[in-house]
Amino acid sequence: MINNLQVKNSILSKFIAEIRDINIQTDRMRFRRNMERIGEIFSYEISQTLSYRPANIDTPMGIASVEVCADRIVIANIMRAGIPMHYGFLNYFDHADNAFVSAYRMHHKDGSFEVNLQYVSCPDLEDAVLIVCDPMLATGASMDIAIKNLLEYGKPKKIHIATAIASAPGLEFIERNYAKATIWAGAIDEELTAKSYIVPGLGDAGDLSFGPKVQD
User: Fold this and answer.
1) Architecture of domain 2-52+64-203
2) What is the mean pLDDT of each run of 10 residues along the chain (216 residues)?
3) Would you say 188 and 8 are in contact if contact means Cβ atoms under 8 Å apart?
């Protein structure tokens, strides 16, 4: 299932517009905060799909009957670009466990690339709700290798994939390979360049958050 949040106007549209805007992108702190806000919005949307249980809470005036989340949540991000969104999720799911995947594109002179996986840190995923966040979903290759490696740590009861901007081809690839996952996209762009960059996209989310890296 793909949930395209851009089809309905909300404050999310403002944050998506600002992370795309070349004039606002020069402010790294604002870019990171907008990615964090997008993670917060995704958190609220995903929270409506979770399981809940009744609980009695003591207040200064008596006892209140409430519903609390019954799921064990694990939030994963693909570093480094996914870190700000990850913090957005943690602002809402503050008791969640956390996983980290270090994966990046290694480009070749002929224009092709491969995804290089260097590091995975993950808790037990058995019967958990796994949320994997990455600001950009282009070809889906990084997300694919991240999920495959995360699933070595157990079988989650549900997988949610959250991305600020996705390409239509990338979404089709992920939906085809992870039919039972729920995908959340802040915006969907139709075009990928020959080098598999999203158009109009926003550029390199990792560089915009943390500064440029030395290219291999």
Assistant:
1) 3-Layer(aba) Sandwich (3.40)
2) 92 97 96 98 98 97 97 95 96 97 68 72 97 95 92 97 96 94 96 88 93 74
3) no
